[in-house]
Design a protein that fits this description.
Length: 207
């Protein structure tokens, strides 16, 4: 059952973050109505994406656990993702955030491509049927779209997001890939209660 009207979760992610990638790969199955919102991890309280000791091994182990194909790390990683996020912001404006972002994630972490390379962005666009000329024009509007990206990042901070990936639903924040499962479980419980109440009301005798 879908979430109740007005209770749509928001999914905040950075295209350069591998944990966001793993969460994104499962989101359409567990939380298909989530709103995808690209943000700049560097603007969040816990800072940008870092290659901390053990980080790659932990992500690779999580990928195995989630049944995702082995990661191919882009070089360099972490890399510059600002322009990729600008295009993702444009894709969101035309209703293609999910399709473009999944394609870009896969170019980066399944294909090992650098998201700072415009050719990578064009390949991702082609994979989700976004015209290459639209991507070029979006990059020419980097200042305007970048401002929209920064506003989305500020909104995420205001909602309590500390790092990516994060899901926000009815004032609650669920961080990390595991947050997908926790929120999906909560929604299932909430929907079960709503269905039980509706059934009980339907059985009430007419006045």
């Amino acid at each position: 059952m879908p979430p109740a009207e007005g209770a749509r979760p928001s999914f905040f992610y950075d295209l350069g973050d591998p944990e966001s990638y793993l969460a994104a790969e499962r989101l359409s199955g567990l939380l298909p109505l989530a709103e995808w919102v690209p943000v700049a991890a560097s603007g969040l309280p816990e800072g940008g994406i870092a290659d901390r000791p053990g980080r790659r091994a932990a992500i690779e182990a999580l990928a195995v656990k989630r049944g995702v194909q082995p990661l191919r790390w882009p070089r360099p990683w972490p890399g510059e993702t600002r322009r990729a996020l600008v295009v993702a912001t444009y894709a969101k404006q035309i209703g293609r955030a999910t399709a473009f972002s999944l394609a870009a994630f896969r170019q980066a972490f399944a294909g090992g491509r650098d998201l700072a390379d415009d050719d990578t962005l064009l390949l991702a666009a082609a994979a989700c049927e976004v015209h290459p000329n639209a991507v070029v024009k979006a990059l020419e509007r980097e200042a305007v779209l970048g401002a929209a990206l920064d506003l989305a990042t500020a909104a995420a901070v205001a909602a309590g997001v500390k790092r990516v990936p994060a899901l926000v639903w009815e004032g609650q924040v669920f961080h990390g890939d595991v947050g997908v499962d926790v929120l999906a479980d909560q929604l299932q419980v909430a929907q079960g209660r709503a269905a039980a109440i509706a059934e009980a009301l339907a059985r009430r005798p007419a006045p």
